[in-house]
Write a structure and sequence with these properties.
about 20% helix, 3 helices, about 35% strand, 6 strands, 6-stranded antiparallel sheet, about 140 residues, alpha+beta
């Protein structure tokens, strides 16, 4: 019989991806990033409108993996503004195993819409993000 991980945490083979999409600002100041991590490694790719500015990897500790994988806020409510919004930021989080997505959530934060979800996700992923230098060092403004 195989031991399965608890229901509230991804198995060690799963990969979690968190994306932050920056607001529409001039390219020298635009910093979006994708943070991908599993039980062994974390990787960050920073871009400005598709141009990769920085890419780094770091080892994932067992304790940090346990912390983030067991506390993924799956109960977030995201409601996009009916009239849309200009200038906001966006976020996406997904959990996949072998390319099969078991959880996905995305939204826009603009004019107060989805600010709670964006803040909770940013707080949740902060320990993984801290494996890398601050953004102003990782990809300085142009």
């Amino acid at each position: 019989m195989t031991d399965l991980p608890p229901m509230n945490e991804p198995p060690p083979a799963e990969t979690i991806t968190y994306e932050f999409h920056d607001a529409s600002v001039p390219p020298p100041y635009h910093r979006s990033f994708v943070l991908t991590f599993d039980s062994e490694r974390a990787r960050i790719v920073v871009d400005s409108y598709g141009q990769v500015l920085a890419e780094q990897s770091a080892p994932m500790t067992a304790g940090l993996w346990q912390q983030v994988s067991s506390s993924l806020p799956r109960d977030l409510i995201v409601q996009e503004p009916a009239e849309g919004c200009t200038g906001g930021t966006g976020f996406t989080v997904s959990v996949a195993d072998g390319g099969v997505v078991s959880f996905a959530l995305s939204g826009s934060e603009c004019g107060g819409a989805n600010s709670n979800a964006a803040e909770r996700l940013a707080d949740w992923v902060a320990p993984v993000r801290s494996l890398f230098p601050p953004m102003d060092q990782l990809a300085p403004d142009g």
